[in-house]
Amino acid sequence: MPERYNPKNVLTGDTDGAKVKYFTPEQNRRDRFGNRMLISKDLAYLDRSNDKVKAGILISPEGEKFIKQNPGIIKKIDSALSFFETHGKYREEIVDLDDGVTIEIGKGGNQSEFYILTAGGERYAIKTNALFWVHQPYINEMLQSQSLATDLKDALSELKVRMSTFLFASGQVFCTRYEENVKNYDEETEERLERVDRLELAVSAYVVRKKSEHDPLWENIEVDIPYTNFQRQETIRRNFMLQPDGVMVWIDPFFYNET
């Protein structure tokens, strides 16, 4: 399974007492979003709290369809990511994984590497953690995004905002549908800023409530929307992908803040 851990924190022979965090199965071993969790039998790691956590991969219903339509895709992705890590990401910019499946290097950030996966004629975004212990596990990010999409469904619909579609996530790797701006952001700027203002109020209130309930999924989580209008415009272009119908896809809603 695609996973990348700091070797100093991987546990292969001392996994007794390791637990699964944040994933809460209900019926048919799925959580309230329909996700399934595939858990490693012999691999665990130490998280920020020094707890032993079972390594695993969280798969959404959309991810299940994707995996069924592309047999062996998880192993192919893992192989490609290992290749990039071993040979250096600039030696080969694209890797052919056979059957029309390719993965190419995209523009990463200070804390992550970004890749574009093409499979079945569709494109998907893959992000991996470039630095260890500076971010929250990507499984958390997937669950937070799904929580917003479900619990704030009406508010998001009214504001014409939707969340990224996650296919799967592990602690250090995630895969979503690839989103990009397909409409000019220079149009109706004030209207969009107003929508983001209202969005921030709704989501901030939601996060505050989750923290007050001592929900560990939301510990140290902040909404990634700056205060000034200039900064907001830059963030909107970077974190909100504008669709032809005016819907903004929110691809990076939070940041982890330990201070």
Walkthrough of the structure:
By secondary structure, the protein is α+β, with helices and mostly antiparallel strands. It is 31% helix and 26% strand. The chain has helices at 61-69, 73-87, 138-151, 153-158, 189-212, 229-239, and strands spanning 10-11, 36-46, 52-59, 94-96, 102-105, 112-119, 122-129, 161-163, 166-169, 173-177, 221-223, 240-242, 248-250, 254-256. It has a nine-stranded antiparallel sheet with strand order 1-2-3-9-10-7-6-5-4. It has a three-stranded mixed sheet with strand order 8-13-12. The two termini are 32 Å apart. 27% of the residues are buried.
What is the strand arrangement across the widest sheet? 1-2-3-9-10-7-6-5-4
Count of runs of 4 or more consecutive helical residues: 6
Helix content: 25-40%
Structural class: alpha+beta
H/E element sequence? EEEHHEEEEHHEEEHEHEEE
Report the principal-axis shape: globular
Summarize this structure as a short list of keywords or feature phrases.
259 residues; alpha+beta; 9-stranded antiparallel sheet; 6 helices; 14 strands; globular
